[in-house]
Amino acid sequence: MAQLIDGKAISAQIKEEVKEKVAALKEQGCEVTLAVIQVGADPASSVYVRNKKKACEYVGVRSLAYELPEETTEEKLLELIREMNDRTDVNGILVQLPLPKHIDEEKVLDAISPLKDVDGFHPQNVGALCIGKPGFVSCTPAGVIQLLKRSGIEIAGKECVVVGRSNIVGKPMALLLLRENGTVTVAHSRTKDLKEVTKRADILVVAVGRPKMITADYVKEGAVVIDVGIHRNEQNKLCGDVDFDSVEPVCSAITPVPGGVGPMTIAMLMNNCLESVSLQAIRG
Ligand code: NDP
């Protein structure tokens, strides 16, 4: 039986650690504050925003909610971001994606001060990750590293294959595994003979956005398999990019969906809110 990597338990542990540190900062007179900006009322986004606010409450981070109407102009949104950038009592800024079509997402994300970019999407933070400088790291891949480390899985020297090269998951994931001294390969939709590549992996991280695409024949016996994907089927059941039932018998450890990578993303967001205080002290 493969080891089940328990994202629920590990994320709870991280939130407890963050909670303690946030309380200690509060005692020193610093109230960690996150501004959460949502434009429009996309139901999925509203659920994510609600969960982020709940997590803030739990760990003691003050959250400021800005719920702007769908027709908000790009200029109005940029104005609010500039205001948040300037406010010394705001440590982190999060703009919930996706934004309405009339707003240029890239322009908005680039407008967030890199010192307050708790999602880790700003080019300056991506660059910092690339050259090993302090900065915010995208929450989902940062969560995967915590899952591995806290489950006692060694990364250094291992063959790591990341399937997917998106800016928010695949690419930062590859950089983080490299930072941990893994030997990293990134596969994508143009990769020839994907199975041959994934079968080399000691650690296989899958972020393709295709339900149950990775079956046992993509996995080396004894590999560690991390499933970043989240999909909801017609029966309202969640599944990942990995076909859990077929892969679990061949691997040594695996993340379930739900209860694997999913809960880590918000825990790492809370951790980034906490880190914003020290990053602002170093670079601000
Ligand atoms: P994207 O759609 O942005 O990227 C998917 C990547 O997979 C692309 O790089 C694409 O390649 C590659 N890909 C697609 N099809 C294939 C294929 N047949 N073979 C090989 N590679 C392929 O997705 P994201 O990175 O944003 O998300 C990936 C998954 O993770 C989704 O299921 C998403 O819901 C989930 N997710 C979960 C989070 C969490 O908190 N747990 C957070 C973020 C995402 P190419 O670049 O060539 O097009």
UniProtKB/TrEMBL annotation:
Pfam families: THF_DHG_CYH, THF_DHG_CYH_C. GO terms for cellular component: cytosol. One of its GO terms (molecular function) is methenyltetrahydrofolate cyclohydrolase activity. InterPro entries: Aminoacid_DH-like_N_sf (IPR046346), NAD(P)-bd_dom_sf (IPR036291), THF_DH/CycHdrlase (IPR000672), THF_DH/CycHdrlase_cat_dom (IPR020630), THF_DH/CycHdrlase_CS (IPR020867), THF_DH/CycHdrlase_NAD-bd_dom (IPR020631). Residues 138-279 form the Tetrahydrofolate dehydrogenase/cyclohydrolase NAD(P)-binding domain. Its EC number is 1.5.1.5, 3.5.4.9. NADP(+) binds at G164, R165, S166, I230. Belongs to the tetrahydrofolate dehydrogenase/cyclohydrolase family. PANTHER family: C-1-TETRAHYDROFOLATE SYNTHASE, CYTOPLASMIC (PTHR48099:SF5), C-1-TETRAHYDROFOLATE SYNTHASE, CYTOPLASMIC-RELATED (PTHR48099). This is Bifunctional protein FolD. The lineage of its organism: Bacteria, Bacillati, Bacillota, Clostridia, Lachnospirales. The gene is folD.
